[in-house]
Amino acid sequence: MASTDDANTPSNASSNSTPTGEDEIELTILHHGNTLALSFPSNATLADLSSKISSDLSIPPSNQKLLITPKLGLQKPPFKDSSIPLSTLLSKRITLMGSTTAEISSLSATISASTVPRRPSPIKPATPSHSRSAQRIQEDATYTFHTLRPLPYLPRPERSLAFLERLRDDAGIRAAMRAHRFSVPLLTEMDPAMHTTHESRTLGLNRNQGEVIELRLRTDAYDGYRDYKTIRKTLCHELAHNVFGPHDRDFWNLCHQIEKEVDRDDWRSGGRSVGNEVYYEPEEEEVMDHGGWTGGEFVLGSGGEQTAVSSAGGEVSVGGLSRREILARAAEERLKKAKQVDEHAKKDGEGLN
């Protein structure tokens, strides 16, 4: 795991697992931020660890993912080598990712109950204003990311939230979203281990033409964050999927146009001309995504009440929200901003009289 100051993360990986006797060893693993100690016979293997997780934690092998560092990386059943002795893992850090059968069933039921036809949320139009700033406030409230959500079970979620806030408030991103009238209910971070294989790393995902955008903020080992401009370029890529799903020429033309607009309007960095710039199109081992997608999991991470920052600046609960609820929250935030614009316009009108 990334942070050395996480209260749940041991400071020395070698101290996580120690022999308990001549015939037993004790292996320590991390699961959703909690430290778990499991005892095994001294000749136990990786297959025995999987069986123990299934029986003691009710996480079936199909849901198990083990991040073993250093060197072994991501392992999941059926293992390429299930006979690896657990005694050779005593000095390694082992992170278990996976949900119980009950959690998966509950999530599936929530998604099934919320699959209703998508309808546009009613938005009260703002009163026309003599002030250009009032119009900008309304546009920024409408064409934005209405809810930001870090993954609470990864270390230091407040850092991920700050990263998402920086992306939302980026002058270039805001200008591009206004220009293309993009409104995204939820911007969240991606768990690197869930989208990493031996062949590729997925950098972003866009669901249902902009209902949810996921970004790969962290490094593979959770020990830091990726370069900001690389992530921002991934966000430009995902915003283009609001219009086009497949990676065809229309998609790439729009993607490159958004990238140019973001760089041009990033006044905090001084702005720059990028008319002749060659744009990065990822190689096989690191892919932006596999095109716009629909269906699948909507609520990410584990259960429990979680909070995120809305575009209005306040905190809202997003623990276990369904698709319908997330869209409703976004509509509520837009209505709140519209009322603020109305009040601002009335004050401007009184000042002109």
Average pLDDT score: 74
Spatial extent as radius of gyration: 23 Å
Please identify the structural class as seen in this structure: alpha/beta
Which residues sit in consecutive blocks of at least 5 with pLDDT less than 50?
1-15, 270-285, 295-320
Helix coverage percent of residues? 25-40%
Largest sheet: 6 strands, mixed
Strand content: 15-25%
Number of domains: 2
N- and C-termini, Cα separation? 61 Å
Order of helices and strands: EEEHEEEHHEHHEEEEHHEEEH
Overall spatial form = elongated
Number of strands: 14
Summarize this structure as a short list of keywords or feature phrases.
353 residues, alpha/beta, Ubiquitin-like (UB roll), 2 domains, six-stranded mixed sheet, 8 helices, 14 strands, 34% helix, WLM_dom, proteasome binding, WLM-domain-containing protein, Ubiquitin-like_domsf
Structural account:
Residues 136-336 form the WLM domain. It comes from Lepidopterella palustris CBS 459.81. InterPro entries: Ubiquitin-like_domsf, WLM_dom. This is WLM-domain-containing protein. One of its GO terms (molecular function) is proteasome binding. This protein is α/β, with parallel strands linked by helices and 353 residues long. The protein has two domains: 13-101, Ubiquitin-like (UB roll); 118-352, no CATH class. Helix content is 34%, strand content 17%. The chain is built from eight helices and 14 strands. The protein has helices at residues 46-57, 101-114, 132-142, 157-169, 171-180, 228-240, 249-264, 323-352; strands at residues 18-19, 24-31, 34-41, 65-69, 73-75, 93-97, 145-149, 184-189, 201-202, 204-207, 212-215, 286-287, 307-310, 315-317. The strands form three sheets. Strands 1, 2, 3, 4, 5 and 6 form a six-stranded mixed sheet that branches. It has a six-stranded mixed sheet with strand order 10-11-8-7-13-14. Helix 3 (132-142) runs antiparallel to helix 8 (323-352) and helix 5 (171-180) crosses helix 7 (249-264). The chain is elongated. It starts with 17 loop residues before the first strand and ends with a helix. 32% of the residues are buried.
